């Protein structure tokens, strides 16, 4: 290694008088610098420190080191500036020490001869305890050993010079308790790859229980930059120490270790950087590239991929040289990691024509690569037939087809027989019959011949074709040769055969058409997914059919009194009902009951049961539509859930847009209007839309209202009272305006509900205002529409591939890579916030979902701030729409942000709400009710035809 720098004059200590000039030179083998000094002049390998007039404050140890070096190889010199008027120089007046450690009091003596008689005294000059142990150094000061809590306080250093006592300034000793909890250290993924010239950045995330911590890096790169961000939360310090290299070189490859410590110990974490000259794609087949598979068996082909930069495109291509139909492409199932991937292609129940070459290809923006598997499909022998050739009646010919090529055995029986038995005698074992036809990836056709005249007459002959996959046989009776030669041709054979073939083809085409129509039929999917395990970006989902169902949820179906149909989808419907004895024996509770239509098949019944199991698995939370019970025995499956009187949030917001009151100052905007409030009075000009529900089958659509006493034959006084009370509540709600606190409350409640789902490892996959219901007290509840939504007729669901997806609410990784995570739900939540603060407008207004839309999303396009969103709420939306999923906030963090915003606006909103007297008297609503509800508006439709969503 390099020798340490050299300081001139070359002395361990230098003594000067006050006012003397001081010049110190430092030189070395490479660039050097004086540490923590200002008045220096550097000339690459040398640096000069100049002090024109020294004072006692210049007393101290001066250090010189190589630039960008570690602590090794540092040269030092101590400078004394003699000043009889200032015996002591104290650079700092407060020192910290951990209990049990050693405290260094920075009492620097200004001349070495002053330090002959130095003691440590307390501020009040009280005597130190006998067990106090300390030492003095003329260059460092006084060191107090094994400090205890009781020794905290103020101290002075004291020297006796020529009989005169000289005291230093007072120094405060602060004793901190020893930490029991060490720091924790986390680093970015274990391996990084960069191309020469690219920037490299890695973040070390440290959690420390106190401000007493230290972080350092041990790096392969010689020149690095560092930045640090610190926050304090829940009595812990969270530090992000960011190390970066602007442009990496090959020699920067190696280990990068972040080391953090406090008094409780050290912790470290490491990552590896590999610098390459150019990008790469390496493919490694997991199985052998040449495979033989039995007919009807399944096969799995896997390829491990290492690639940098990330892959842009990949897929499988199947070709068969015997087929002229071109190639068939597949995507396979891709798993992602840090610069690695794994793709699996499942080939189920292989048929003969599915043999051939399967090529996996992958490419990034620099290179491409491919690997090819050769698949041969094995099959037992078939079409084994004995015949006498038309051109030679002296031989018997046996034809067989199979893969591998079958061998042929000839047997003879001296009597007429139509079944092989022990009486048969082996005549010939033809282990290598003549190959008639052999093509790659195809069965082999073979032929074996025996002389017929040598075998005699009136015998039965048997030809058996055998390979590893099985055998096939055929019988031939020697007497039939005469009959076959003399028999006249059947003139009816050809017309009958043609008719049969034609009929078969028509039936096959009809079957294929029916199968196509069946596959086009929308399938009911349970949107919510439960994560079982997570490794990086690789999620394993629990099969909901495997979740247990607790019989405690069972409820007697006879205790349900059904009311009106609230809504219907392609597969099921939701019905208002009254449950007697749900929870308590004498309770009467209004509920919503989800059920399948009578036309539902087994898959849809299983899907509804899966939805029931997921709801029971999640448990109860105020901000999700909770399961109350179920009926799974003795009839169709019924799922009983909470009844949400005010329907979905989307309709609620659009309806309330008629009379919203929001103070301009709350929106962080400066408006030209002199009015203090936005008082919106939108005319009722809504068009009919059912958001994907179909009301077919209902004689007239019934808007969601509570079941009144008059609609039930089993009415009672108490039911009448309840109905009247509910009707009054609805009237009161209709008159109550919407304000900013309500919008913030909805936002907060949905965030809390999603945080609950995330804590249960549940991914929603379809979070939107149409999938949130509003219950009493304006409480928002998240739900999963599942079988209730008719996505074929809902414009929010766009055809992508062979599925219909809510593209405008989906995160980019979900749209382009089919990756669904909690972070993708956060993106959808940001879209929902935009819906809330635009009062129910459709996102990306005026934009059609096409290739331009996809390109804008991929490039990071974000919607403008909606009309009623405070600036901080719009900032949350923008954070939710980060293209990098890991940069998006968690639902817990979002909930905290919104709670803070609520505190700011709560007092103002309460002040501006109408008084109870004004509400009871019924504010002037004439302007809201004069226009016809049947007219059309260019804005957002109020989903009046289906106010209650099935969830």
Automatic annotation (TrEMBL):
Enzyme class: transferase
TM annotation in the entry: 492-516
Presence of the UniProt keyword Transferase in the record: yes
Ig-like domain boundaries: 5-75, 182-274, 381-482
Gene Ontology biological-process entries: cell surface receptor protein tyrosine kinase signaling pathway; osteoclast differentiation; positive regulation of cell migration; regulation of MAPK cascade
Cystines in this chain: 26-64, 107-157, 204-258, 398-463
Keyword annotations of the record: ATP-binding, Cell membrane, Developmental protein, Disulfide bond, Glycoprotein, Immunoglobulin domain, Kinase, Magnesium, Membrane, Metal-binding, Nucleotide-binding, Phosphoprotein, Receptor, Repeat, Transferase, Transmembrane, Transmembrane helix, Tyrosine-protein kinase
Chain residues that bind ATP: 566-574, 594, 642-648, 770
Pfam families in UniProt: I-set (PF07679), ig (PF00047), Ig_PDGFR_d4 (PF25305), PK_Tyr_Ser-Thr (PF07714)
Reactions it catalyzes: L-tyrosyl-[protein] + ATP = O-phospho-L-tyrosyl-[protein] + ADP + H(+)
Documented EC number(s): 2.7.10.1
Residues of the Protein kinase domain: 560-902
Membrane topology of this protein: Single-pass type I membrane protein
Swiss-Prot/TrEMBL site (Important for interaction with phosphotyrosine-binding proteins) positions: 910
Catalytic residues identified in the record: 766 (proton acceptor)
Annotated Gene Ontology cellular component terms: CSF1-CSF1R complex; plasma membrane; receptor complex
Binding locations of Mg(2+): 539, 771, 784
SUPFAM superfamilies to which the protein is assigned, alphabetical: Immunoglobulin (SSF48726), Protein kinase-like (PK-like) (SSF56112)
Cited InterPro entries: CSF-1_receptor, Ig-like_dom, Ig-like_dom_sf, Ig-like_fold, Ig_I-set, Ig_sub, Ig_sub2, Immunoglobulin_dom
Gene3D superfamilies reported for this sequence: Immunoglobulins (2.60.40.10), Phosphorylase Kinase, domain 1 (3.30.200.20), Transferase(Phosphotransferase) domain 1 (1.10.510.10)
Subcellular localization, as worded in the UniProt entry: Cell membrane; Membrane
Family, similarity comment: Belongs to the protein kinase superfamily. Tyr protein kinase family. CSF-1/PDGF receptor subfamily.
PANTHER family in alphabetical order: MACROPHAGE COLONY-STIMULATING FACTOR 1 RECEPTOR (PTHR24416:SF47), TYROSINE-PROTEIN KINASE RECEPTOR (PTHR24416)
Protein name in the entry: receptor protein-tyrosine kinase
Species of provenance: Rostratula benghalensis (greater painted-snipe)
Organism lineage string: Eukaryota, Metazoa, Chordata, Craniata, Vertebrata
Encoding gene (name): Csf1r
């Amino acid at each position: 290694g390099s020798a340490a720098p050299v300081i001139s004059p070359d002395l361990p200590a230098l003594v000067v008088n006050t006012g003397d000039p001081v010049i110190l030179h430092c030189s070395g083998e490479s660039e050097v610098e004086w540490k923590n000094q200002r008045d220096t002049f550097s000339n690459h390998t040398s640096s000069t420190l100049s002090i024109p007039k020294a004072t006692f404050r210049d007393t101290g140890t001066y250090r010189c080191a190589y630039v960008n070096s570690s602590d090794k190889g540092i040269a030092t010199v101590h400078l004394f500036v003699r000043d009889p008027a200032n015996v002591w120089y104290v650079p700092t007046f407060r020192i910290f020490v951990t209990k049990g450690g050693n405290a260094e009091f920075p009492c620097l003596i200004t001349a070495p001869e002053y330090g002959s008689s130095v003691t440590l005294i307390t501020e009040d000059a009280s005597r130190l305890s006998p067990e106090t142990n300390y030492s003095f150094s003329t260059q460092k000061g006084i060191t107090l050993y094994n400090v205890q809590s009781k020794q905290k306080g103020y101290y002075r250093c004291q020297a006796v010079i020529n009989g005169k006592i000289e005291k230093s300034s007072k120094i405060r000793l602060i004793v901190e308790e020893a930490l029991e909890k060490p720091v924790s250290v986390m680093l970015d993924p274990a391996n990084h790859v960069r191309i020469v010239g690219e920037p490299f950045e890695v973040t070390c995330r440290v959690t420390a229980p106190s401000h007493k911590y230290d972080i350092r890096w041990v790096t392969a790169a010689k020149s690095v930059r560092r930045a640090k961000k610190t926050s304090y939360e829940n009595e812990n310090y969270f530090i992000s120490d960011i190390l970066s290299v602007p442009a990496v070189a090959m020699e920067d490859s190696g280990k990068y270790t972040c080391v953090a410590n406090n008094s409780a110990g050290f912790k470290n974490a490491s990552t590896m950087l590999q610098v390459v000259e150019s990008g790469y794609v390496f493919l490694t087949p997991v199985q052998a590239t040449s495979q033989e598979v039995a007919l009807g068996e399944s096969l799995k082909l896997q390829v491990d991929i290492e690639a940098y930069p990330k892959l842009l495109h990949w897929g499988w291509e199947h070709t068969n040289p015997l087929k002229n139909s071109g190639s068939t492409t597949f995507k396979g199932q891709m798993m992602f990691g840090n610069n690695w991937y794994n793709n699996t292609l499942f080939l189920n129940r292989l048929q003969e024509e599915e043999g051939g070459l399967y090529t996996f290809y992958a490419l990034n923006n620099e290179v491409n690569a491919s690997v090819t598997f050769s698949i041969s499909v094995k099959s037992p022998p078939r079409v084994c037939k004995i015949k006498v050739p038309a051109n030679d009646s002296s031989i018997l010919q046996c034809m067989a087809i199979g893969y591998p090529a079958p061998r042929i055995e000839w047997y003879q029986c001296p009597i007429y027989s139509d079944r092989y038995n022990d009486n048969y005698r082996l005549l010939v074992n033809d282990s290598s019959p003549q190959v008639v036809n052999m093509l790659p990836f195809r069965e082999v056709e073979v032929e074996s011949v025996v002389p017929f005249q040598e075998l005699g007459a009136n015998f039965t002959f048997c030809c058996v074709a055998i390979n590893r996959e099985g055998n096939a046989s055929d019988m031939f009776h020697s007497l039939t040769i005469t009959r076959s030669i003399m028999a006249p041709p059947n003139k009816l054979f050809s017309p009958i055969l043609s008719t049969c073939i034609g009929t078969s083809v028509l039936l096959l085409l009809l079957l294929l058409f029916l199968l196509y129509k069946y596959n086009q039929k929308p399938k009911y999917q349970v949107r919510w997914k439960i994560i079982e395990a997570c490794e990086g970006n690789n999620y394993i989902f629990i099969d909901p059919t495997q979740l247990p169902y607790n019989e405690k949820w069972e409820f007697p179906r006879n205790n349900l009194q059904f009311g009106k149909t609230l809504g219907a989808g392609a597969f099921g419907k939701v019905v208002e009902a009254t449950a007697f004895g749900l929870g308590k024996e004498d309770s009467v509770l209004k509920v919503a009951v989800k059920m399948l239509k009578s036309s539902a098949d087994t898959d849809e019944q299983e899907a509804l049961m899966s939805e029931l199991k997921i709801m029971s698995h999640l448990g109860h939370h105020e901000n999700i539509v909770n399961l109350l019970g179920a009926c799974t025995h003795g009839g169709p499956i019924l799922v009983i859930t909470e009844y949400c009187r005010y329907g979905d949030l989307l309709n609620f917001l659009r309806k309330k847009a008629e009379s919203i009151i929001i103070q301009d100052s709350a929106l962080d905007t400066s408006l030209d209007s002199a009015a203090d409030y936005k008082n919106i009075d939108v005319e009722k000009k809504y068009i009919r839309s059912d958001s994907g529900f179909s009301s077919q089958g209902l004689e007239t659509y019934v808007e969601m209202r509570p079941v009144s006493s008059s609609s039930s034959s089993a009415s009672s006084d108490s039911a009448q009272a309840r109905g009247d009370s509910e009707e009054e509540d609805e009237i009161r709600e209709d008159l109550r305006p919407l304000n900013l606190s309500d919008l913030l409350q909805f936002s907060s409640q949905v965030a809390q509900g999603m945080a609950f789902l995330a804590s249960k490892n549940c991914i929603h996959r379809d979070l939107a205002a149409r999938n949130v219901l509003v219950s009493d007290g304006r409480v928002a509840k998240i739900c999963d529409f599942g079988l209730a939504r008719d996505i074929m007729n809902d414009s929010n669901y766009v055809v992508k591939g062979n599925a219909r997806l809510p593209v405008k609410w989906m995160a980019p990784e979900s749209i382009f890579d089919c990756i669904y995570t909690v972070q993708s739900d956060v993106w959808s939540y940001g879209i929902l916030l935009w819906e809330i603060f635009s009062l129910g407008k459709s996102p990306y207004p005026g934009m059609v979902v096409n290739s331009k839309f996809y390109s804008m999303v991929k490039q990071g396009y974000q919607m403008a701030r909606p009309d009623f969103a405070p600036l901080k709420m719009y900032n949350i939306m923008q954070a939710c729409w980060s293209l990098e999923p890991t940069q998006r906030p968690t639902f817990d963090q979002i909930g905290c942000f919104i709670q803070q915003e609520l505190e700011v606006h709560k007092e103002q909103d309460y002040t501006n709400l109408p008084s109870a007297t004004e509400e009871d008297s019924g504010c002037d609503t004439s302007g809201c009710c004069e226009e016809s509800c049947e007219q059309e508006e260019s804005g957002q439709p109020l989903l009046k035809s289906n106010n209650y969503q099935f969830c």
